[in-house]
Design goal:
heterodimer, A: 265 residues, mainly alpha, Serine Threonine Protein Phosphatase 5, Tetratricopeptide repeat, 13 helices, 80% helix, 0% strand, globular, B: 315 residues, alpha/beta, 7-stranded mixed beta barrel, elongated
Chain lengths: 265, 315
Amino acid sequence: MMDRLRFSASLVLSGVLFLAACGQTAPVRNARLELAAEYSQSGQRAYDRGDYLTALRQYEMALQVDVAVENTLGVAIDMLNLARVNQLLGRVEVAHAYLDKLLLDDALEYGNTYLANAATQKALLMLHQGDVNGARSWLEKASAWCVAECLLESVIDNARAAIALREMDGDQAMHWANRAASASRGDSPLEYANALRHMGEAHLMRGEFSAALRLADEALVLDKSLGLPEKIRQDLLLSARAYEGLGDAEQARRFRARAARIISR
Amino acid sequence: MKLHNYNQRLLNIEQRTKRFLLGAFGAMLLALLLIAIKQDYLVRSTAIYFFAPNAQGLNQGMAVKFIGFKVGSVKEVSMEPNATVRVRVALDDDYVHLIGQDAKARLIKEALVGESVVEIIPGSQQVRQVTQNSVLQFERGQDASSIAESMAAQLQPILSDIRQITASINDPNGDIQQTLKNLNQVTGDLRETVNQFTQLATSGNQKLESVHGKLDKALDSVNANLQVMDKAIPRLVEKADATLDNVQAATSDIQRMTADSAGELPAFIHNSNALVQDSQDMLDGAKRSWPFSGWFSKPEAQVLPADGYVTPEKP
C-alpha cells in the first residue's frame, strides 16, 4: 500500500517538474536585436564560403539595426567585420574608415578586446600598404589593450614577425613567429599556419632552405584543411623559393606552376 | 740325472700350462670386451621409455635414430600388466641434450623393404631435455603394408564404379547403347532433312518470283490509299478548327470565373498570411521553450577571425 502511494507521489512530482520545465522559456531578445544577430550570422556564413560581397551587405544591415538600438557590442562587432570584409574586397580606405570610427569614437565606449582587434587590423592594413612604422605603432596599442580574455596574442606576434621580415631581420622574425606558433598551436590553425609560413621565410633569409621547405609543407597541409586559396598559393611559392635555394630548379618551376593555378576567390 | 730331467720337464709343462691359461684368460677378457662394446656397456647412456599398444615391429637391439644418426638402441621390450608394451631405450648421453621431454618416438621403416628403426622426432627446444627414466610418446609410422592397405581401401570404390560403367556400356538396354542407337537414327533423319531442304530451296526460288509480283500489286494499293487520304485531310482540318473554338470558349469561361472570385482572393491571401504568421509565432515560441530551446542555436554576432599574415612584398 505504502509502495503504491510512494510511486503515485513520485509520478505526480515528475509531472509537475516536467510542466515547470516546459513553461520555462529562454530569455527573450527584442526583435531588432534578433534581426541584427541574424544578419550578422548570415554575413558570417557568406564570409565562410568566400562570398564577401554578400557578407558585406549582411554586415551593413546588421550595423544599421545595431546603431538604431544603440547596441554597442553589436556596433563594434559589425564595424570590425565590415573592415575585414572591405579589406578582403580590396577597399582598403573603407576598411580604414570603419576602424577609425571604432578607434576614435569618443561617444561610445567599446571594450578593450574590440579596441585591440581594431588596432591589430589597422596595423595589418598599414603593413599591407608598406607603412612599417605606423603598423608598429598600432601593434603597440593593440598589445596594450590585449590583456584579459584577449585571443589576439598570436595575431599580434605574427604581425610583428611580418614587420621583422620586412626589415630583413631573420632572427627577430623567427623569435616572434616562434611565439605566435606557441600561442596558437592547438587553438588557431589559421594563425599557426601563418606562424609556420613566417618561420619558413625567416629560414629562407638565413639560407636554411631545407628547414624552410619542411615548414612550408606543414603550412600547406594546414591551409588546405582550412580551404584558404591565397594561403595555399603563398605556401607553394615559399616551397618554390626553398627549392631554388637548394638548387633544384625543376622542382621550383613545378611549385611555381602549381601556385599559378590557384585562383583566389 | 733322470730325476733332474723329470723335474725339468715338469717345469716346462707348468710354464706351458701357465701360458695357455694366461692366453685363455686374455681371450676371454677380449671376448667380454667385445661383448661389452657390442652391448654398449662402455658407453654412458640414459634409459628412457615409451609405451606402445603392441610389440609388432619392435625388437630388442633395434636402432634408435635421431635426424638420421644412431643415438641409441632398444634394450628391452616387455609386456605390462595392462596389456601394453613397455619399451626401454638406451640413449647415448652425448645426444640426450638434443632431445626434449616433448619429443616423440616413432616406429618407421627406413626403406620400402628394410629394417624398422625407432626414430626420435625432436620436440620443442625450449622444453627441458629428457632425463633418466623419462617417458616419450609413441606413434607408429606408416609402413609399406599399411600404405598399400590404405590405397587398396581408396581404390576399392573406384574399381567398383569402373566395373559398373563397363557393365552399363555393354548392356544393350543401357543408356549408352540406347544413345548410340538414337544417334544413328538421328543421322539418318538428318540426311533425309537435307534432301527435303534442297527441294524446298528449289520451290522457294519459284515462289519468290510470284511474291515479287504480289509486292507490285500491294504498292499499287498503297498509292490508291494515299489518294483517299488526300481527300480526307481537309475534312479533318475543319474538325480541328471547331475543337480550337471549343478550347477558346473554355478559356473565356475560366477568365470569367477568375474575375468573379477576384473580390474573394485578397481576403483568402490575407487569411493565409495570418495563418503563416501564427505558425511562425508558434514555432518561435516552441524554439524558445524547453526542450526545443536546446536544439536550436541562437544567432549571435561574432567577430571574424583576424589574419596575422601579410603577403611578402616580393613573392
